[in-house]
From TrEMBL, chain A:
Name the UniProt record assigns to this protein: Pre-mRNA-splicing factor RSE1
Keyword check for Nucleus: yes
Pfam families: Beta-prop_RSE1_1st (PF10433), Beta-prop_RSE1_2nd (PF23726), CPSF_A (PF03178)
UniProt subcellular location: Nucleus
Ranges of residues in domain RSE1/DDB1/CPSF1 first beta-propeller: 19-394
Keywords in alphabetical order: mRNA processing, mRNA splicing, Nucleus, Spliceosome
Family that this chain belongs to: Belongs to the RSE1 family.
Domain RSE1/DDB1/CPSF1 C-terminal: 854-1175
GO cellular component: spliceosomal complex
Molecular function per GO: nucleic acid binding
Annotated RSE1/DDB1/CPSF1 second beta-propeller domain residues: 462-777
From TrEMBL, chain B:
Protein's recorded name: Splicing factor subunit
Cross-referenced PANTHER family: SPLICING FACTOR 3B SUBUNIT 5
A Pfam family this chain is assigned to: SF3b10
Family membership noted in the UniProt record: Belongs to the SF3B5 family.
Annotated GO CC locations: precatalytic spliceosome; U2 snRNP
Species name: Imshaugia aleurites
Length: 1209, 84
C-alpha cells in the first residue's frame, strides 16, 4: 500500500484526552514539594497541587507519541529527586527526569528489550520498583519479567544494568509490586497462575484445581541474579496486591485482594484475612460480593494505613495491628488486620495521598476529584472489623459484614477537574447564534454522566458591573506617582466631558484632581515621577504633583485627533495631519520637539511603545493613516520623526499597539506592532528593534466591527486586548510561549484599560454601553470553556431537533436496577429503620443487579434553560440503543423522534429477547414527547436514520425501510447488505452508507421504482467501525474500535453506474467480486489516533474558517483533520515531519511513523501535533531544520500556526 | 542433515522466545487458544480499548481486566481428548 495519496489531511488535537491511565506521586522537581504525574493516552502531564488554595495546576504536558501503559517513580538513596520510569508500547524501558529550570522532561535511559507494540509476552504491562530505588521489574501479562538494577556511577549519574531475566513460561501475571524489605536484597511480589496443566487436561479437573500463587522474586545484588524465592497459594480470585511497609516501618509483606477478601501475606508471617464490608440497604443485594479495584498505602511518622476502594466506590481504611512485647512496644509480628468504612469517592483508576493532606482521585469516568482530608477516620462511630472473625481460608464459611454508606466525613472535595472521559458522542452546532459554532457532547458514565457544552473562549471573572449616568466613550486608569503599586483614578471620557473616579474602599467621583472635566479626553498618563497628563482635543494638560497645571494648547483652528503616551513621551496628531512630539526633560517638564511632521493623510491612530528598561525613550512611533498605511517613525534624537518603514494594509487602521511580548522564536521577548483595522481584521507584525522594519505579518479576522487594541497585563505577562464584536485576548501560551488569540467569554466591550487595585491586583476595566465593568482573567491555559448538565445514566447517543435548539439523548446503564424495581424494593414493608433512605446516586452510584438495565430518554435544552426538560424511563428491562429524528412524508413531512430499543440485552456474547422501535411525536416545539406506538422487531435496531421521508433501520445484518402506520411501523423494503451487524447509517440522495460492526462500510443504493436496496461497493479490510460520516458523495470518513481513522472513496465509475437512471437490474446482475459487492473502495487516508473515535463530523469550527473533519475520542479527545489545498504545503509539512521525527524523537522511544501506523501504514496524513513541537525545540535545532527547508524560522512557525488558527483554536 | 537440524533448532528458539509460534503439529486447540490469549492481552494492554469494553459491560476497568486475565487461563474451554 503506497503511503502517498492524492488526498492529504493535517491532523491536530484541539483537546487532549482527559482520561487518566495512571497517576503517580513524586518529588520530580527535586524540591520538597510533591507533584502529580499523570498519563492520559499518549500524554504525560505533570501537575502541581497548591495546598494553600486546594487547586491543581498543570505545569507541563508532553505528547509521547506512544501508548503509556505504566508509570513508576523511584529515588536513589540519598537523593531528593524522583525519576520516572515509563512502560510503554515501544518495547523499551524509559527513564526520564523532570528538569524544572527548563520545564521539560529529559530522557536519561532508553533500553530496548523487545518488539514494539502491545503484545502478550513483551514486558510493559506491569512495572514495580524497589522502594529504596535499587531495582525495577518490568513484566508482561504472560511469561516475561525483566529486572533492571538501578545505581549511580562516580559522577552521581543514574546507571541502569543490563536486564536480568525471571521468565516463567505459560504463567499469567495478575499483579506485581515491589516489596518493602528495607536494605535487604530487593524482592518483588507477583500474583501468578500457571496454566500448563490446564492446557493439557481435557477433563477440566486441572482447571478447577488451579491455584493462584503469590511469588516472591529476589534480586541477589551480590550475585546479580534473580531467584524465585518463595511461592504460596492464595485466593483464586485475587487480582490486586498492595505493598505493606517493611524495614523499620512495618512488618513488610503484601495485601492480596480478591473477591470479598483482603489477606495479609508474607513469607515469615501468618496470613490474616478480612472480608470486604457490603452495603446495607433496601436496594442492595446482601449476597453481592465486591472486589477491591484501587487503593493506596500511606506512611506517616511510624504509622501507616491503606485506603482500599471497592467497585462501588466505597473506600475502606485498612490497618495492621502488631503483637506487643512485654514493654508494650509493637514487635515485627502481625496480630490482626482491621477494616472499616472510610468514605465514598468516585471509582478511581488511582488514588494518591499527598503529604500536604490531600487525596487525588483519578476517576475512571467523569471529573477527577481533589479532596482534602478532614480527619483520618480515627475515633468515629464506624464499626471496625478485624481478622479474628474470619478464617484464613476463603472457602470456609464466615459471616458477611455490612456497613451503611453515608456522606463524606473524612474527606472534603476542594476541586473537581473537568474530564470529558468517556465521551460517547459529539455534535458541533451553532445554537446560540454566535459567530462560531459550539461543541455539544455527551460524556461520563452512570450517575456522574453529563451533557457538556464547549465553547472557545477564556474564562472571565466578573468583579464589578456598575451603571453610569451616560454612555462613556473611553476609560483609563492611572496611578498618581510612578512608585504607586495600584491605580488611583479611573478616568471616564464622555462626549462632552470627563469624569474622574478615585479607587479606594469605594469608587467615588473626585473633582480636585486637576483634570479638565469640561472636555472629552483622548489620553491619560502618569508621567515621570509624579505628574499626570491629560490629552483632550484642545490641548495637553500637564498636572504636576503640587497641582500646578501646564497647558499646551493645540494650534489655532486645529484639534488633536489622536494621541499616544508613555511615561516619558507624548505624541499627538492634529486634525491637519501634523504630528507633534513631546519628551520629558530632566526637570520633569514636557518639551515639544521643534518640528512637526506632516503626514500624507489624516492620522487615525498612534502608538508609542513602553520605554524599555534602562532607556530614556521608546525608539519608535507607529502612525496609522486613513490611506490604509502604517508608518514607523524614528524617535532617535538624531533622526527624530524620520520615516523608518511603511506597511500597506487592506483597510484603514483603527488602532495600533507597539509592545514587547514573549516570543517562542527568539526565546526571549520581541517587539511587536499590533494593528487593528476598521474592517475588523487584526494583524501582528514583528518590529525590528534596530531598523524599525516590519516583518512576519500574521492576520486574523476578529469580527465585523472595527478593532481597538489595549495593552493589558494578565498573569504577569504583557498581553493585548483586542475589541471588535467580541473581545479577544492576545497572549503567549504559558507552556509553549506561542502567541494565542482567544475570545473572552464576556460581553462585547467598547473600550478597556488595565486595572490594578488592592482587591484586584491584575484586572481590567471596560465599558459596554452604559455600564462600567471590572473583570479579571485568572486562567490562561485552557481556552475551551465547559458547561455541563447532569444526566441520569451513561449516555449512548443523541440527536438534535431538526429546527429547535434541543437535544434528545438515550441513556442506559448495565447491571443496574431500573427505577421501577428500585421503588418496589423501597416500598417493601419489612424494611428495617434507616434502610429506606436512598443515597444520592451522583456520589454512591446506582444499586446494582446482574442482568438488569436502567434506561431513559432525555430532552435537553442547552441554550435557555440549560437543563433537562423531560425524562422518559423505559420499562421491562428494555434498553434504548439508537435514535433518530425522522420526517415522514406520509404525515405531511412531520418530524417524529424514533427510538430503537432491545429487551434483556446481554452485551457479550450478544443476546436479547426482542427489539422495538418507539415513535414519539414532538409537542410544544419539541419540549415534550408524546408516545405514539411501538413496533416489535426481531432484533434491537442498532442504527436508525430518516431516509426520503421514511425510516431506515439497521436490524441485525439487514437494512429495512419503514413507513409510519397508525398502529405500528410498516415494513416497506429490506435487504441483507452487511455480514454481521449494522451499527451506523449515513445518507446523501439515494445512496446509503452502512457501517458494519466488523466489516467496514458498504455503499448501498436505493432504487425507488423497484423498491430495492442494492449494495454496490464494499471494503477489503475488516474495520470495526464505531463512527462514520460522508465527506462528499463518494468519500466516507470513519473510525474504528482500535483507534484508527480512515477515509475511503468509492471508484468514480462505480459511483456513476449506481446512480444511472432506471432499474437497478445492471447492478443486481453485475458479477460479484470475491464474494462481495462488485466494487471495492480505495483507501485515501489512514491514521492511528490511539483514542477510540466515537464521532466524526464535517463542519466549520471558527467564523470564516474552512470545513474540517472534527472527531472525538472515547477518552475525551477532540481532534480535527484539515484538508490540504496545495501539493506544495504537503511537501513542506512532510519534510518538516521527517526532520522532527529525527530531531525530536518521541520521549518514550516509540518510532513516530510506526506509532501512527500502528495497525496499517499512515497514509495521506501529516501529524500536526508533531509539527507543532517545532516551536518547543531549542534554537539551534530550529535553525538547522529551517536551513534544511530553505526557509526562516519565523516562516516555518507562521505556517504551523496558520494551519491551526485558520480553521480552529 | 545438518541444515535440517539447524532449522529445527532455530524454530525451537523462536518458539521458546515468542509464545505462539506454530509448528507442523500445532493443533486447532493450541492455535485458537493462542489467538484468544493474544486478543485478551491486547484488550488489557490498550487503555482505550479496555475503557470501551468496560463501558459496554457496565463494569469498572479493573474488574474487566481481572475477568479478561482470568479468561486467559482457559480461553476456549478444555482441550480435546487425545486419542492414544
Amino acid at each position: 500500500m503506497a503511503a502517498t495519496s492524492s488526498m492529504f489531511m493535517y491532523s491536530l488535537t484541539i483537546q487532549p484526552p482527559s482520561s487518566i491511565t495512571q497517576t503517580i506521586l513524586g518529588q520530580f522537581a527535586g524540591s520538597k514539594e510533591q507533584q502529580i504525574l499523570t498519563a492520559s493516552g499518549s500524554r504525560l502531564t505533570i501537575h502541581r497541587p497548591d495546598p494553600a488554595q486546594g487547586k491543581i495546576a498543570t505545569i507541563l504536558s508532553q505528547d509521547l507519541f506512544g501508548i503509556i501503559r505504566t508509570l513508576a517513580a523511584f529515588r536513589l538513596a540519598g537523593s531528593n529527586k524522583d525519576y520516572i520510569i515509563i512502560g510503554s508500547d515501544s518495547g523499551r524501558i524509559t527513564i526520564i527526569e523532570y528538569v524544572p529550570s527548563q520545564n521539560r522532561f529529559n530522557r536519561l535511559h532508553l533500553e530496548t528489550f523487545g518488539k514494539s507494540g502491545i503484545r502478550r509476552v513483551i514486558p510493559g504491562q506491569y512495572l514495580a520498583v524497589d522502594p529504596k530505588g535499587r531495582a525495577c521489574l518490568i513484566a508482561s501479562v504472560e511469561k516475561n519479567k525483566l529486572v533492571y538494577v538501578l545505581n549511580r556511577d562516580a559522577q552521581a549519574e543514574l546507571t541502569i544494568s543490563s536486564p536480568l531475566e525471571a521468565h516463567k513460561a505459560q504463567t499469567l501475571v495478575f499483579a506485581l509490586v515491589g516489596l518493602d524489605v528495607g536494605y535487604e536484597n530487593p524482592v518483588f511480589a507477583a500474583l501468578e497462575v500457571d496454566y500448563t496443566e490446564c492446557d493439557q487436561d481435557s477433563t477440566g479437573q486441572a482447571f478447577d484445581e488451579l491455584e493462584k500463587h503469590l511469588v516472591y522474586y529476589e534480586l541477589d545484588l551480590g550475585l546479580n541474579h534473580v531467584v524465585r524465592k518463595w511461592s504460596d497459594p492464595v485466593d483464586r480470585t485475587a487480582t490486586m496486591l498492595f505493598q505493606v511497609p517493611g524495614g523499620a516501618d512495618g512488618p513488610s509483606g503484601v495485601l492480596v485482594c480478591g473477591l470479598d477478601n483482603i489477606t495479609y501475606r508474607h513469607s515469615n508471617q501468618d496470613p490474616f484475612r478480612v472480608a470486604i464490608p457490603r452495603r446495607r440497604g433496601a436496594t442492595e443485594n446482601p449476597e453481592r460480593k465486591r472486589f477491591i479495584i484501587a487503593g493506596v498505602m500511606h506512611k506517616m511518622r511510624g504509622a501507616f494505613f491503606f485506603l482500599l476502594q471497592s467497585e462501588d466506590g466505597d473506600m475502606f481504611k485498612v490497618t495492621l495491628e502488631m503483637v506487643e512485647d512485654e514493654a508494650g512496644q509493637p514487635t515485627g509480628e502481625v496480630k490482626k488486620l482491621k477494616i472499616k468504612y472510610f468514605d465514598t469517592v468516585p471509582i478511581a483508576t488511582n488514588l494518591c495521598i499527598l503529604k500536604s493532606g490531600f487525596l487525588f482521585v483519578a476517576s475512571e469516568t467523569g471529573n477527577h476529584h481533589f479532596y482534602q482530608f478532614e480527619k483520618l477516620g480515627d475515633d468515629d462511630e464506624e464499626a471496625e472489623f478485624d481478622s479474628d472473625s474470619f478464617p484464613v481460608d476463603p472457602t470456609e464459611q464466615y459471616e458477611a459484614i455490612y456497613f451503611h454508606p453515608r456522606g463524606a466525613e473524612n474527606v472534603n472535595l476542594v476541586e473537581s477537574i473537568d474530564s470529558m472521559n468517556p465521551q460517547l458522542d459529539c455534535k458541533v452546532a451553532n445554537l446560540t447564534e454566535e459567530d462560531a459554532p459550539q461543541i455539544y457532547s455527551i460524556c461520563g458514565s452512570g450517575a456522574r454522566s453529563s451533557f457538556r457544552m464547549l465553547k472557545h473562549g477564556l474564562e472571565v471573572n466578573d468583579i464589578v458591573d456598575s451603571e453610569l449616568p451616560y454612555v462613556p466613550s473611553a476609560v483609563w486608569t492611572t496611578k498618581i506617582t510612578r512608585g504607586d503599586e495600584y491605580d488611583a483614578y479611573i478616568v471616564l471620557s464622555f462626549n462632552n466631558g470627563t469624569l474622574v473616579l478615585s479607587i479606594g474602599e469605594t469608587v467615588e467621583e473626585v473633582t480636585d484632581t486637576g483634570f479638565l472635566s469640561s472636555a472629552p479626553t483622548l489620553a491619560v498618563q502618569q508621567l515621570g515621577e509624579d505628574a499626570l497628563i491629560q490629552v483632550h482635543p484642545k490641548g495637553i494638560r500637564h498636572i504636576r504633583a503640587d497641582r500646578r497645571v501646564n497647558e499646551w494648547p493645540a494650534p489655532q483652528h486645529r484639534s488633536i485627533v489622536a494621541a499616544t503616551t508613555n511615561e516619558r513621551q507624548v505624541a499627538v496628531a492634529l486634525s491637519s495631519g501634523e504630528i507633534v512630539y513631546f519628551e520629558m526633560d530632566q526637570d520633569g517638564s514636557l518639551a515639544e520637539y521643534d518640528e512637526k511632521r506632516e503626514m500624507s493623510g489624516t492620522v487615525t491612530c498612534l502608538s508609542l511603545g513602553e520605554v524599555p528598561e534602562g532607556r530614556v525613550r521608546s525608539q519608535f512611533l507607529a502612525v496609522g493613516c486613513d490611506d490604509s498605511t502604517v508608518r514607523i517613525l524614528s524617535l532617535d534624537p538624531d533622526s527624530t520623526l524620520e520615516n523608518k518603514s511603511v506597511q500597506a494594509l487592506t483597510s484603514a487602521p483603527s488602532a495600533l499597539a507597539v509592545m514587547a511580548m514573549a516570543d517562542s522564536t527568539s526565546g526571549g521577548s520581541t517587539l511587536y506592532l499590533h494593528i487593528g483595522l476598521y474592517s475588523g481584521v487584526y494583524l501582528r507584525t514583528v518590529l525590528d528593534e534596530v531598523t524599525g522594519e516590519l516583518s512576519d505579518t500574521r492576520t486574523r479576522f476578529l469580527g465585523p466591527k472595527l478593532v481597538k487594541l489595549f495593552r493589558v497585563s494578565v498573569k504577569g505577562q504583557a498581553s493585548v486586548l483586542a475589541l471588535s464584536s467580541r473581545s479577544w485576548l492576545g497572549y503567549s501560551d504559558p507552556q509553549t510561549k506561542g502567541f494565542m488569540l482567544t475570545p473572552l467569554d464576556y460581553v462585547g466591550l467598547e473600550y478597556a484599560s488595565n486595572f490594578s487595585s488592592e482587591q484586584c491586583p491584575e484586572g481590567m476595566v471596560g465599558i459596554e454601553g452604559k455600564s462600567l465593568r471590572i473583570f479579571s482573567i485568572d486562567k490562561l491555559g485552557n481556552s475551551l470553556l465547559q458547561q455541563s448538565i447532569p444526566l441520569t445514566y451513561t449516555p449512548r447517543k443523541f440527536v438534535r431537533h431538526p429546527e429547535q435548539p434541543l437535544f434528545y439523548t438515550i441513556e442506559a446503564e448495565n447491571n443496574t436496577l431500573s427505577p421501577a424495581t428500585k421503588q418496589r424494593l423501597l416500598n417493601d414493608s419489612n424494611l428495617t429503620n434507616g434502610d429506606a433512605a436512598e443515597l444520592p446516586p451522583e456520589d454512591f452510584g446506582y444499586p446494582r443487579a446482574q442482568g438488569h438495565w436502567a434506561s431513559c430518554i432525555h430532552i435537553i435544552d442547552p441554550v435557555s434553560a440549560k437543563a433537562v426538560l423531560q425524562r422518559i424511563d423505559l420499562e421491562d428491562n428494555e434498553v434504548a440503543v439508537s435514535l433518530a429524528a425522522v420526517s415522514f412524508s406520509s404525515q405531511d413531512d412531520e418530524t417524529f423522534l424514533v427510538v430503537g430499543t432491545g429487551k434483556d440485552i446481554v452485551v457479550a456474547p450478544r443476546s436479547f429477547t426482542a427489539g422495538f422501535i418507539y415513535v414519539y411525536r414532538f409537542l410544544e416545539d419539541g419540549k415534550e414527547l408524546e408516545f405514539i406506538h411501538k413496533t416489535k422487531i426481531e432484533e434491537p435496531p442498532q442504527a436508525l436514520l430518516g431516509f426520503q421521508g421514511r425510516l431506515l433501520a439497521g436490524v441485525g445484518n439487514e437494512l429495512r425501510i419503514y413507513d409510519l402506520g397508525l398502529k405500528q411501523l410498516l415494513r416497506k423494503c429490506q435487504a441483507q447488505v452487511v455480514p454481521n451487524l449494522v451499527v451506523g447509517l449515513q445518507t446523501q440522495g439515494s445512496r446509503i452508507i452502512v457501517s458494519d460492526v466488523q466489516e467496514s462500510v458498504v455503499y448501498v443504493v436505493y432504487k425507488f421504482q423497484e423498491n430495492r436496496l442494492i449494495p454496490f461497493v464494499d471494503d477489503v479490510i475488516a474495520r470495526w467501525t464505531t463512527c462514520s460520516t460522508m465527506v462528499d458523495y463518494e468519500t466516507v470518513a470513519g473510525g474504528d474500535k482500535f483507534g484508527n481513522i480512515w477515509l475511503l472513496r468509492c471508484p468514480q465509475k462505480a459511483s456513476e453506474e449506481a446512480d444511472e437512471d432506471g432499474s437497478g437490474a445492471h447492478l443486481i446482475h453485475e458479477r460479484q467480486y470475491l464474494q462481495g459487492a462488485p466494487n471495492r473502495v480505495s483507501l485515501m487516508c489512514h491514521f492511528f489516533a490511539q483514542d477510540v473515535p466515537t464521532s466524526i463530523q464535517k463542519t466549520q469550527l471558527v467564523a470564516g474558517g474552512r470545513d474540517v473533519l472534527v472527531w472525538t475520542g472515547l477518552q475525551g479527545t477532540l481532534g480535527i483533520f484539515v484538508p490540504f489545498v496545495g501539493r506544495e504545503d504537503v511537501d513542506f509539512f512532510q519534510t518538516l515531519e521527517q526532520h522532527l521525527r529525527s530531531e525530536d524523537a518521541p520521549l518514550a522511544g516509540r518510532d513516530h511513523l510506526i506509532y501512527r501506523g500502528y495497525y496499517a501504514p499512515v497514509k495521506g496524513m501529516i501529524d500536526g501535533d508533531l509539527c507543532e513541537r517545532y516551536a518547543l525545540l531549542p534554537n539551534d535545532k530550529k535553525q538547522m531544520i529551517a536551513g534544511e527547508l530553505d526557509r526562516s524560522v519565523r516562516e516555518i512557525e507562521r505556517k504551523i500556526s496558520d494551519m491551526r488558527t485558520r480553521v480552529a483554536y | 542433515m545438518a541444515d535440517k537440524l539447524r532449522t529445527q533448532q532455530q524454530l525451537e528458539a523462536l518458539q521458546s522466545r515468542y509464545v505462539g509460534t506454530g509448528h507442523a503439529d500445532t493443533t486447532k486447540f493450541e492455535w485458537v487458544s493462542n489467538i484468544h490469549r493474544d486478543s485478551y492481552a491486547s484488550y488489557i494492554g490498550h487503555p482505550p480499548l479496555l475503557s470501551y469494553i468496560s463501558l459496554g459491560l457496565g463494569e469498572c476497568r479493573e474488574r474487566v481486566r481481572g475477568i479478561m486475565l482470568e479468561r486467559m487461563v482457559r480461553p476456549v474451554g478444555n482441550p480435546p481428548e487425545v486419542a492414544d
